[in-house]
């Protein structure tokens, strides 16, 4: 692995950081969270028009930039620094790769150029709270996580040659505002159970969506109801390819999320260092106290370890090395620690609603609920590597 960045990667990071500094400051962030969509459409348009961010990791044949996943991960590190709410994670990290991997030529041609241009947002809708399971981050995804005939899932059936979906799912990232839903549905009943993915446009009759109150407001979530909705099957109906595609997507998404969490942790630590360098107590800045320095040094060491793991995971995504879950576990713990120390060392203002410290802590806790927790991410990685499998010893 070459730890240095290319000139193009440095330029992406620099340009994106400058744009977010101007367009996604604390006041702009609060205003975006209060909108019905939960993000600023003008900022999303700027990310698409000026940087081509939605199509950064999509092939040029479909209007994308053709960069590796590592470049998208580095871009998400910058969006993580400001906790910028946008459809980037749901659209470019979760939905677009599935369309690219499983979609037919006609589906790719119709959808991916619009996603790359930023004119179409999309998301992956799976029954809550099964997102980590569907992506094979905390366990294998060969079970009935899509519903299996039980309440809370989505069922699919063929009626007169068309697919109809019915059911509901919650905690869908941007599920209330995305222009396209990739819905994981259970089909075949009990005789031939299988999980398939379906395309559901926002204008579909019988589709009901509302925004949910989420722990982390910077990741807007929606509750989706499908009342006998007509849907288009993604791909050719090969159910065997769906779990593998989701597992591969999960590892890549984990690498991107790890870089995003590293960016958030870095900014939380940076703000804390700035604050303790000017806050005075007993006639001295509190940053001069050895106990404070030790606590921040511990955060810095944990952050740098998480950054190293996240960068390696992003680099490894194009080399068929699945280490994203481990990197995400490391990054989530670093973010939680950095955010907790930020709240503590900011003192009284760190606990207020007006300060940004609690937003970083909620990002760490919210991501653990959606994609973790850290100990399960590590446990599944250990099971996959068969670290604790007993082997017969011949004497």
UniProtKB/TrEMBL annotation:
The keyword Transport does not apply. The keyword Cell wall biogenesis/degradation does not apply. GO terms for molecular function: oxidoreductase activity. InterPro entries: Acyl-CoA_Oxase/DH_mid-dom_sf (IPR046373), AcylCo_DH-like_C (IPR036250), AcylCo_DH/oxidase_C (IPR009075), AcylCoA_DH/ox_N (IPR013786), AcylCoA_DH/ox_N_sf (IPR037069), AcylCoA_DH/oxidase_NM_dom_sf (IPR009100). Belongs to the acyl-CoA dehydrogenase family. Residues 6-118 form the Acyl-CoA dehydrogenase/oxidase N-terminal domain. It comes from Streptomyces galilaeus. This is Acyl-CoA dehydrogenase family protein. It holds the Pfam family Acyl-CoA_dh_N. It is an enzyme of class 1 (oxidoreductase). Its cofactor is FAD. It comes from the Bacteria. CDD domains: ACAD. Keywords: FAD, Flavoprotein, Oxidoreductase. Residues 255-384 form the Acyl-CoA dehydrogenase/oxidase C-terminal domain. Its EC number is 1.-.-.-. PANTHER family: ACYL-COA DEHYDROGENASE (PTHR43884), ACYL-COA DEHYDROGENASE FADE28 (PTHR43884:SF20).
């Amino acid at each position: 692995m070459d730890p240095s960045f290319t000139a193009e990667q440095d330029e992406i990071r620099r340009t994106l950081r400058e744009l977010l500094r101007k367009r996604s400051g604390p006041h702009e962030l609060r205003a975006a969270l209060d909108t019905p969509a939960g993000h600023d459409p003008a900022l999303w348009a700027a990310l698409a028009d000026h940087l081509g961010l939605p199509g950064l990791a999509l092939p040029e044949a479909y209007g994308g930039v053709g960069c590796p996943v590592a470049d998208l991960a580095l871009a998400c590190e910058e969006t993580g620094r400001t906790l910028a709410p946008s459809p980037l994670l749901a659209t470019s990290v979760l939905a677009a790769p599935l369309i690219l991997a499983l979609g037919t030529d006609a589906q790719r041609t119709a959808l991916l150029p619009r996603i790359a241009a930023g004119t179409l947002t999309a998301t992956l809708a799976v029954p809550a709270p099964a997102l980590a399971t569907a992506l094979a981050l905390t366990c294998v995804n060969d079970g009935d996580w899509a519903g299996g005939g039980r309440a809370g899932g989505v069922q699919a059936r063929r009626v007169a040659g068309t697919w109809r979906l019915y059911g509901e799912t919650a905690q869908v990232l941007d599920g209330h505002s995305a222009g396209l839903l990739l819905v994981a549905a259970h089909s075949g009943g009990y005789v031939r159970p299988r999980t398939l993915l379906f395309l559901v446009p926002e204008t579909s009759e019988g589709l009901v969506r509302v925004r949910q109150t989420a722990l982390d407001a910077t990741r807007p979530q929606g509750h989706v109801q499908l009342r006998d909705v007509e849907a288009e099957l993604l791909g050719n109906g090969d159910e065997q390819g769906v779990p593998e595609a989701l597992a591969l997507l999960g590892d890549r998404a984990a690498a991107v999320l790890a870089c995003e969490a590293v960016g958030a942790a870095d900014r939380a630590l940076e703000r804390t260092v700035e604050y303790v360098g000017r806050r005075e107590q007993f006639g001295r800045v509190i940053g001069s106290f050895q106990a404070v320095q030790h606590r921040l040094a511990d955060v810095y060491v944990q952050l740098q370890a998480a950054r190293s793991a996240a960068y390696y995971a992003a680099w490894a995504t194009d080399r068929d090395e699945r280490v994203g879950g481990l990197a995400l576990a490391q990054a989530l713990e670093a973010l939680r620690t950095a955010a907790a120390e930020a709240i503590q060392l900011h003192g009284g203002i760190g606990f207020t609603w007006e300060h940004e410290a609690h937003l970083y802590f909620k990002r760490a806790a919210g991501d653990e609920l959606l994609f973790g927790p850290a100990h399960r991410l590590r446990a599944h990685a250990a099971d996959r590597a068969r670290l604790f499998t007993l082997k017969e010893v011949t004497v």
